[in-house]
Amino acid sequence: MTKQYGFLIDIKRCYGCKTCSMACKSENQTPPGVLWRRVREYETDGPNSEGFISMSCNHCDDPQCMKVCPADTYHKRPDGIVVQDHEKCIGCRMCIMACPYNAPVFDPQEGKTSKCNMCAERLDEGLPPRCVASCPAGVLKFGDIEELRKIHTTDWAVLEARYHMPDHRISGPNVVIIPADK
Question: Which tens digits make up the pLDDT trace of 78-106?
């Protein structure tokens, strides 16, 4: 693998407009109720605060969805993007149960799961993911994860405690998160 793509999320810039989520939905024509990128509201103590975090698939180093899928639906591209062959999905939801970030989404109408593919088709055309391109506040950035990590080092202990994020050692998410107080 020559590089690993990832996202940078600057929580302090996010004001919860959900433009990223709606742009993703529009770009990927997901069915009603299926959101690949979700803007979650959070509350913290010490200091008391409210805010938002935009999350989707983190295209992990050790994708749990890929490990458990009995239909061999998932694979990792050479650029690190975890993609799903939707035609192979049998709708067992094992990927949903295994993903610590709740990235795969089940569509009860179709009886299958799907998830963010980082707009792989757009990337192949030299365009950024739609969520990144549409964010009016510059909350989301995209690129080689090592370059993004040079911008900011994620303090996982703070994220896990303050924002109730899962233990990053489970899957090795390729995301950099700048907390609201940085």
Answer: 999 999 999 999 999 999 999 999 999 99
3-state secondary structure of 153: coil
Q: Is the peptide bond before 47 cis (omega within 30 degrees of 0)?
A: yes
Domain count, the chain: 1
* 42 pLDDT above the threshold of 90: no
Report the CATH number at residue 153.
3.30.70.20
Residue 42: which of 54, 34, 56 has the closest Cα? Answer: 54
What sign has the CA pseudo-torsion 122, 14, 182, 166?
negative
Report the distance separating Cα 139 and Cα 132, nearest Å: 8
Q: For the whole model, what pTM was predicted?
A: 0.92
What is the domain range of residue 31?
A: 5-178
Q: What is the rounded CA–CA span in Å between residue 95 and residue 121?
A: 23
Confidence of residue 51 (pLDDT cuts 50, 70, 90): confident
Rounded distance, CA 162 to CA 159, Å? Answer: 5
d(CA 150, CA 79): 19
Q: Where does the chain have alpha helices with state H?
A: 19-28, 64-68, 94-98, 120-124, 130-134, 145-151, 156-162
pLDDT of 1 reads 47
